Task: structure prediction
Amino acid sequence: MAGLSLRGVKKVYPGGVTAIHGADVEVADGEFVVLVGPSGCGKSTLLRMVAGLEEITGGEIRIGGDVVNRKEPGERDIAMVFQNYALYPHMTVRENMSYGLRNMRTPKAEIEARIAEAAKILQLGDYLDRKPRQLSGGQRQRVAMGRALVREPKAFLLDEPLSNLDAKLRGHMRAELKELHQRLRATFIYVTHDQVEAMSLADRIVVMNAGRIEQIGAPREIYDRPATRFVAEFIGAPPMNFLPGALIGANAPHVGVRPEALTVGGAGEVRLDGVVKLVEDLGADRFAHVAVKGAEAPVIARVAAHARHAPGEAVALTAERASLHAFDAEGRRAA
Result:
C-alpha cells in the first residue's frame, strides 16, 4: 500500500473552463479519505486524474512517492471501483475477479489463492460460479470490490460506489466498507455527494465546492468547526441554521447554529421568538421548523421525541453563545 500526494493539481478543459483550481491533498498510507461535495464540484474529476483517466493541466500527483503525471492508468498500481460496478455480464464472478490478474499473467495458483482470500473477506464464496445478473446489487458491488482487492494495489479509488443501492442496502454496505478498511488498513480515496457517507466512513474529509477545496479535516472537526459557510450548510442533516448577526446582537454578518444546539424554552443566553410552521417526525428525532422574524429561512430546532408542538404555536428558541458559529461577509469562519 502507499500514500498519495496532490500538489497544485489543476484541470482546465478546452475553452477555458476550469474544473479544478489547484488541489493540494496529502493522503497517508492506510488512510480512508472521502471527497465530498455537490454534483459538479469536481470530486470525480479529481479522482479520475489520480487514476490516470483524465489528464491533468498542472500540478503533480505522487503515488507512493513516485510522480505519475505521465503514467498510464495500468502503470499506476491502483484499483478503481465504479458506480455502475463495470462487471462483464458474460463472465462468472470468479472470471470477473481474475480478469485483471490473468492479463498480468499472474500464475494460476496465485490467482486462485487471491480469489479465495477475497471471497472469504467479502462473503462471496457461494457466488463464484454465478453471473452478475444472478446477483443482487449489494453482491455485485462486493464483486467489484473483490476484483479490485485481488490486485493488491497501492490504493483503492471508489467513485460513488453505493449510489445505485437503496437506502437500507447503502447503510449495510457502508458498514461493510468500514470493516473492510479496518481489516486491510489499505489506502482508500472515496468520492460521494452524500455527507452521511462521508461522516461515517472517513478518517478525513475533503469538502469540495466549484472545483476548490473548502476544508480538509476529521469528520468531527468538519462538523464542529466548519471553515466556511458552505461547509457548515453542506455537512449536517438538517443543515446549520443561519441568522443575521444583528438579530442576536453579534458583530459578525452571519451567525450559524446547529438544530441540536437550540432548545424550545430553556434559559439559554440567546433567545429567538417565533411561530412553529411544521414539525418533522423522523422516529428517533423530531424537528420543529420555526418562523423567526428577520431570519433568512425557518429556523430548525431538534425537539424532544415526546414533544407535541403544533403549527401556529408561539415558541421561544434558546441557545448558548458558545454554540454559535460566526462567519464574515465572504462566508469565512470569523470565530
